[in-house]
Amino acid sequence: MQADGASIYVAGNPELYPMEYYDPESGTYQGAIPDFLRAFARDCGYELRYLQPGPADRRAELAERQQVDLISGCADGSRYAHTDGEPVILFVSGAEGEETAVQLWFTQVSPGRFQADLRGYAARISQEEWIGSILRSAGDVPPRQLPMGLLWGGGLLLLALAAAVAVCLYRLRRARRRRIQAVQADPETGLGTEEVLRQAFHSLGRNPGRSALCLICFRLDLDRAGYLWGREQAHALLLHGARVLREAAGQADVLIRTGRDDLIVLKRFPNRQDAEEWTRSAVEKLRGFTANGATLRRRDASAGICPLGPEYHELGQALFHARQCALAAGLEESDFRLCGTAQCGSCQERWRLLSDFSGSLQQGDFLLYIQFFVDAHSFRIVGGEALSRWRHPRLGFLSPNRYIPLLEGDGRIRELDCCGLEQACGFLEALCRHPVQDFFLSCNFSRSTFAAPGFVERCTRIMDRYAFPRKLLILEVTETPHLDPEGARQMLRNIVALREYGVRVIFDDFGMGFSSFHDLQDYPMDGLKLDKELVDNMQTERGRILLNALVETGHRLGLTILAEGVEEDYQIETLQRLHCDVLQGFRFCVPLPAAEAGRRILEQAQPGACSDSQEG
Ligand code: C2E
Ligand code: CA
Ligand code: CA
Questions:
Q1: Which residue among 122, 146, 174 closes a domain?
Q2: How big is the CA angle at 415 (ends 411 and 421), to the nearest 5 degrees?
Q3: Nearest C-alpha to atom 45 of ligand 1 is from which residue?
Q4: Are 509 and 527 in contact (CB under 8 A)?
Q5: In a domain, 345, yes or no
Q6: Is 420 in the pocket of ligand 1 (CB under 6 A)?
């Protein structure tokens, strides 16, 4: 009879190579015992879950806390506390006159039926089959090449095997230690990496006491520090953060760095109030940093507290919530935000959106919309901007503000940007089959996508598949506050290579970010798109002076100047007076579904050609 997928939690022996060992590269247990347990789970209908090991063997601790059903990879006689009944003996080695048995122990929480099933299953496996499996795991000698007589030679073989195992074990431990050091320590701060946190989180298993733990994300605005005070001071701020938290955290807490500027603490608190007090005091200390006499603003250091209730099945989900709360706390200039309170109600929704993203992308639920650009004097449609809309299966049509910031924070914006590029190329190719040869289309890229190595290759692979004059495609890149020197160099290389390929590159939202004039100096571009806020500010004298300066500077550098967010007639008149080249805004057109936009473009090219058009 099948057990219908009941979960079985196993604490393995990370060092019993080749019977059972933890492979940090794949993040799984390997060896003869895990192979056996996997076969058992498959045949008898269980779901097998090995808990991740910590830096050392945690079987005794996991047995004592009753977090697992099975303690695996035990040598003879090693009885753990809180185990139940007799062990299952898997394999007995008679080498050197001493009998050694490799065993499995059940804990007191393991279901009776599972115990009976496993005992029955193990009894059907012969010692010879075990030897074959161990040799396969050791990988030294493929079993089919062994003379059968040797297999039956029992003791002698086991002796040889024991020696081989000892050598392998030593080598494996040494290699493993090196690998662990590489994945477990952040080179800049010496704190743990996300891998350490992942192991700690998984080893908590289904322990109900988990809710007493909080995952706390501390955010430091290293971008701003780098921009204002330089790279060294940003690094000093990071080290200050690591020092403060190291001093505040206890021996049993997990402290790691993840992403660029998140420091995470996993800590047990007797109650919520203590968690809040501890976090508030840590944030205050973080804000004590000074650089060249300057201090941090309140919003430059903040925290998000995520109590690890049973609703958090995945570490990624808890981390996401803690990060979102830390970000929100920074924006509202408070010390911290607590996940799960009314204040952070939308966290859950945002996490669900992120989880739905890949599926939707594959299903083609990101649709191409186009908002036209018009000539500033004739108001003729000259081009358009490709904008995405998410046709979400549950929530209906979503505008980019709902998902772009999420995807940027998560690093998956690249996938959407590539999808947008593909759709834009397809649109241009289709248009070129008609007598429309001069409509240009711009496509949005976040700067993290644009500044990444391999970006040019990714883009050209997509563009090569479509036939259209390259100069009709424009890549819009938005400002982001700070790129490290290598990022800036990569960005420059990418811009140069893409312009050589024949497409044009412009800055989006120009004039409002951190580094506008720097950017003009550093990067060879084709145009600037003035940010909507600049266009909104032109009612004031100051606003007009600033705008004038930007347009004039841009023109003297040979750039095309576009203005976005044009809603009013007075804005059109001022922009015409300032010799702005191209306008975009609701005054002319809202973003349209690609098919509708295509119809209108054809209609302009051949008046009367699209009589089914809805244009009013
Ligand atoms: P953006 O690139 O600055 O695009 C212009 C946004 O301003 C669009 O919003 C557009 O509908 C809106 N807009 C245009 N004219 C007016 C106006 O007169 N008044 C007002 N109030 N708004 C106007 P949308 O379509 O919601 O897009 C928001 C942002 O999302 C865009 O800002 C763009 O940066 C980003 N986005 C959209 N699709 C993608 C994508 O596929 N990849 C990336 N990286 N970003 C995208
Ligand atoms: Ca844009
Ligand atoms: Ca813009």
A1: 174
A2: 130
A3: 444
A4: no
A5: no
A6: yes
**Is the CB–ligand 1 distance for residue 508 below 6 Å?**
yes
pLDDT of 579 higher than 90: yes
Whether ligand 1 lies within 6 angstroms of the CB of 446 is answered as: yes
- CATH at 435: 3.20.20.450
Tell me, yes or no, whether 327 and 403 share the same domain: no
304 domain-assigned: yes
Identify the domain boundary among 174, 199, 231. Answer: 174
Residue 597 pLDDT greater than 90, yes or no: yes
Residue 352 Cα to ligand 2 midpoint, Å, equals 26
Q: Are residues 150 and 246 in the same domain?
A: no
Q: Is the pLDDT of residue 283 over 90?
A: yes
Residue labelled with tokens 């209730």: 309
Number of domains in the chain: 3
Spacing, Cα 387 to ligand 1 middle (Å):
6
- Percentage of the chain beyond pLDDT 70 is 84
Whether 489 is covered by a domain: the verdict is yes
Q: Do residue 237 and residue 334 come from a single domain? A: yes
pLDDT level of residue 64 (50, 70, 90 thresholds): confident
CATH number at residue 195: 3.30.70.270
* Cα 51 from Cα 35, distance rounded (Å): 16
384 Cβ below 6 A of ligand 1: no
Which residue's CA lies nearest to atom 3 of ligand 1? Answer: 509
**Which pLDDT tens digit goes with each residue over 418-451?**
999 999 999 999 999 888 889 999 999 988 888 8
> Shortest CA distance to 137 belongs to which of 26, 24, 29, 12?
29
Q: What is the DSSP string of 59-100?
A: HHHHHHTT--SEEEEEPTT-PPTTEEEEEEEEEEE-GGG--E
> Ligand 1, closest atom to CA 584?
15
Ramachandran category for residue 141: left, alpha or beta (phi over 0 → left; psi -120 to 50 → alpha)? beta
pLDDT of residue 610: 43
Q: Whose CA is nearest to atom 19 of ligand 1?
A: 565
Say whether both 34 and 118 belong to one domain.
yes
Q: State the distance from the centre of ligand 2 to the C-alpha of 475, rounded, in angstroms.
A: 9
| Ligand 1 contacts CB of residue 330 (under 6 A) | no
Residues 102 and 165 in one domain: yes
Does 404 contact ligand 1 (Cβ within 6 A)?
yes
Q: CB of 371 closer than 6 A to ligand 1? A: yes
Based on the fold, state whether residues 164 and 198 are members of the same structural domain. Answer: no
380 with 317, same domain: the answer is: no
pLDDT tens, 496-550?
999 999 999 999 988 876 556 778 888 899 999 999 999 998 889 888 898 998 8
Domain that holds residue 478: 372-605
In the chain, % of residues over pLDDT 90? 50
